[in-house]
Design goal:
Length: about 240
């Protein structure tokens, strides 16, 4: 089963950008990126178990074993330069995948983009969200604004969405961070100026996880600035990855 959705390319890409979505989401949240990125970069959106065309699979609720699975997938797919982008839960996940690749001595991403995610040694802003009753969880999603109203207002769609969301949140909230050497990979951390889950003042703490270049870029908006300021986010990625 494919773990990444790759659009049909009109010509070979020079770099693959592996994109890891936030909790409960699928590759569709990156569907507009290929239109905004230069043709030399292909967007490969992660399709984790329990969503999109993998709805019949059990969602993974432990981040470490999920990262281990993805290491094998990345190593089998990689055929040239690549980079990682992850938002929120996806940010921590792609960081852990990169750490595992480093330990194995495997080729590493050219750049690591971590978006809307607190540094792994910091406590979660809202712990134990994965255990909330359905109604309370729905209200939280509504307040954050990242889930389409069509999903929140339809019980059938919500029932399809919640298992993967709860699994991702559990994986994120119960992950035990183990200290390790900084990565030899340049890192850019993206944040929303009004994000209460990954407050701008906490993002600088990611700097200790790389021994290469590091910077924080802030955008208007809250936790889902990825959508509200999509063109600026993608332009930043394109600028940093270069021609």
């Amino acid at each position: 089963m494919s773990w990444f959705y790759r659009p049909v390319a009109t010509r070979p890409a020079e770099l693959s950008l592996f994109c890891f979505p936030y909790a409960g989401a699928g590759p569709n949240i990156f569907r507009g990126w290929d239109r905004l990125l230069p043709g030399s970069i292909e967007t490969c959106g992660a399709v984790l178990p329990g969503r999109a065309f993998r709805l019949d699979e059990r969602p993974r609720d432990r981040l470490g074993p999920l990262a281990d699975e993805l290491v094998g997938v990345i190593r089998s797919l990689r055929a040239g330069p690549y980079a990682f982008f992850g938002h929120s839960f996806g940010g921590l996940l792609c960081f852990e995948v990169a750490r595992r690749l480093h330990r194995l001595g495997a080729p590493l991403p050219r750049h690591l983009f971590v978006s809307a995610c607190p540094a792994p040694h910091l406590p979660a802003a809202e712990p134990d969200v994965h255990g909330l009753p359905d109604r309370a969880l729905k209200e939280r999603l509504l307040s954050l604004g990242g889930t389409p109203l069509a999903v929140l207002e339809c019980d059938e769609l919500l029932n399809l969405f919640l298992p993967a969301l709860r699994a991702d949140l559990k994986a994120f909230e119960t992950h035990h961070h183990e200290p390790g050497p900084p990565l030899p990979v340049p890192m850019t951390v993206l944040g929303g100026a009004d994000d209460r889950l990954a407050r701008p003042e906490t993002l600088e703490a990611w700097g200790q996880y790389t021994r290469e270049s590091f910077e924080v870029r802030l955008f208007p908006g809250g936790h889902f600035f990825l959508h509200s300021d999509e063109e600026a986010v993608v332009a930043t990625v394109a600028e940093i990855l270069g021609p």
